[in-house]
Amino acid sequence: MREVDWKPYVYVLPMILIYLTLVLYPVAYSLWMSFTDFTTVTQVEWVGIKNYANVLTEGRFWNALVNSAVYSLGTVVSICFGLLLALILNSEEIRGKTLFQSVIFLPYVLPIVVASVLFSWMFTEFGIVNSFLMEIGVIGTPIGWLSSPTLAMPTVIVVTVWKNVGFNMLIFMAGLQSIPDGVYEAARIAGKTRWQTFRHVTLPLLKTPLVITTILGMIGAIRGFDAIWVMTEGGPGNATETLGVYFYRVAFASGDFSSGAAIGVLMFLISIALSGAVFWYSR
Predict the structure, then answer these.
(1) In the chain, which residues have pLDDT < 50?
(2) 47-282: CATH number
(3) How many whole angstroms separate alpha carbon 148 and alpha carbon 235?
(4) pTM of the entire structure?
């Protein structure tokens, strides 16, 4: 013990204490709360897995899970667009790369609530989207984008794709710039086409950025709340009620903190399972 250098541990001790207080303790407390009937701090009754049984047998939970899966399709679209833009802007033939990167990345800096409000105005029946489509003759009458059970979710997905594509592009740009030029030179000497070079050289070497963007996108889709709540509040009906919106309604709108904690734990387990699946597949 005397031979151990304790200085590094002393340096990281404040951050460890902050992490234990602000992260691990709330997580452990939520886990404990999910096994109780939590009315008040002084009125707590242990009920075991009753809250989980009630949540898992409720149709709204499975509807929210399906909506979250549909909402996660925006992650796939934003990753594809981000990768495409990164490949285009990484070309030496493109001039003014910094300007294009800044313009594309700008929506990510914009607060999601502000972006959601702007898109809500744009997609109203008398908004700019309907006006433009009617002007060019695509539609004859205004479309209720956010009041339609079929169109509400795709409309919300458009907002998330618009906001996140710049972040994904930046991650892929960093990955592309880290690939040595010698690898591409070897591919050209071997007579590989552009598609073969992308398929067998670029894409495998972008494994880390792909894993990062996929995991962050999936977790964001599971937790999806802010844009949906601002634009539709989970409606019409429950057409856009994701797990994040369902959790908020149960825990805070209805005041059922025990069931809300159970939903939060299930969301955490789903995120861990999906992240583990992505890591396993990326091997």
Answers:
(1) none
(2) 1.10.3720.10
(3) 9
(4) 0.87
